[in-house]
Specification:
heterodimer; A: about 230 residues; alpha/beta; six-stranded mixed β-sheet; 5 helices; globular; B: about 300 residues; eight-stranded parallel β-barrel; four-stranded antiparallel β-sheet; 8 helices
Chain lengths: ~230, ~300
Amino acid sequence: MAIVLKNEAVGKDFYLLKAAGDYPASMGQFCMLRAWDEYPVLSRPISIFDCDAEGISFLYKVVGQGTELLAQLRPGDEVDVQGPYGNGFPMVKGKVALLGGGIGVAPLYYAAKTLKAQGCTVDLYLGFTEEAMLEDAYGAVCDKMTVNVGGYVTDEINPAEYDVIMTCGPQIMMKVLANKVKGTAAQLYVSMENRMGCGVGACLVCSCKTSSGNKKVCKDGPVFKAEEVFGDE
Amino acid sequence: MNRLAVEFAGVPFKNPVVMASGTFGFGREYAQLFPIERLGGISSKGLTLHARSGNEGIRIWETPSGIMNSVGLENPGVEGFIARDLAWVNSLDLVNIVNVGGHSMEDYVQAVERLNEEQLDLLELNISCPNVKQGGMNFGVKTEMAAEVVRTIRNVCKHKLVVKLSPNAENIVDLAKACEAEGADGISLVNTFLAMAIDIKKKQPVFNNGYAGLSGPAIKPIALRMIHQVSHAVEIPVMGLGGISTWQDAVEFIMAGATVIQVGTATFMKPDKALDIIDGLEHYCEENGIQNILEIRGIV
């Protein structure tokens, strides 16, 4: 069990939770969070927003029973943080774009921070339905930030400008981006969001079809090369 | 003194807590998270003769106090399991239960014959599969069909045979008796309950197959009743499962007649939930002056 350091609303239905502890987290990984005993049955897979010496942060959207319970946590409360799990984004070099839609922006903060520290040029493209959030925070960890509210964030990017693009968000958005990236030299990595059970690769409910057979989103992913998961489209 | 040591169909268990098929893979993932050799045993992910890629679409859906799943027996096939995982599971200090399913009598027979050549402790026969040659009727629903599978497999299976029953059986007590009569060494029950969820926006079922299997605390009272009925109707030992998530649940299942209990969905609440159950059972025995947990088996 970890102690909640803060848990604040950062937008309509969006919360940023920080839990104390030393976690060996990589960008693009997630944790299974739980702040209740038996019900709801499943823990919630939540992207890692940031990680530092003080603790680990999660950006999440309240969409149902589990996230509603998470949103009620107050500083000093206990939260069960299982993980970090998953492969995360790969360490790359060169000019990188990170594109997120909705709550899919969550893993891009830590990714931008990490890649900047590695010497990459990092451009952020953030898409929101109703209102932007955490603009100052995101703006501080990238070279250029483009925010789109109410439209299609995929319209904003020219993939040919980049060596590597990483994306997280609605499947349809990632597919649109994958099509746009095709034919350019950019390598696209996508972070998949299938419904999960165990979170550790045992139950196979989050399987996703890839060019090399079924893969477990929780264990082999959540990050895949776009051509592995959207290759046939 | 090991108050939790039990014997099931001649196989010694250091404690009666087994991980249920389909919720624990072959144990490798959880071995990285907690000391799995404290477990009594593992029932493997359900294997079929050939590898299967499983069902399309959504595979899990949460319900009040439970989950529905429609994984569709995604598995590496018997050969894949033998090549990659069997030796590893056998190297562990716990009971190795290999779960086998099939979609035709021929599939069952060939899978079991292949496993005859291998070392394992118990073969758990999953009869909750649709029989593709009988219009997709589940093998575990009609007593006659279940009896035929068990009779056929008993004739070819060299291992101790545990038949895992479906709660969707027309008459689970008669079906269990038929399994016993055909030579099963033990019974495990229950598999998941056939259930449904509808996406009201799309006006269609959540699962591509229409129906899916319900597990978790939601089914516990019904599972417990079935274990009580079956274990009082047969002489062979019973493994009880269905929504067990606490040591108190485990005590209930043992009092109802189970010799061994299986933990499934609860592992998704907390990976080492089964260890909490083992600790709780140990403590319960000490507190109540119970020398061996089987003293309370079937007392209700």
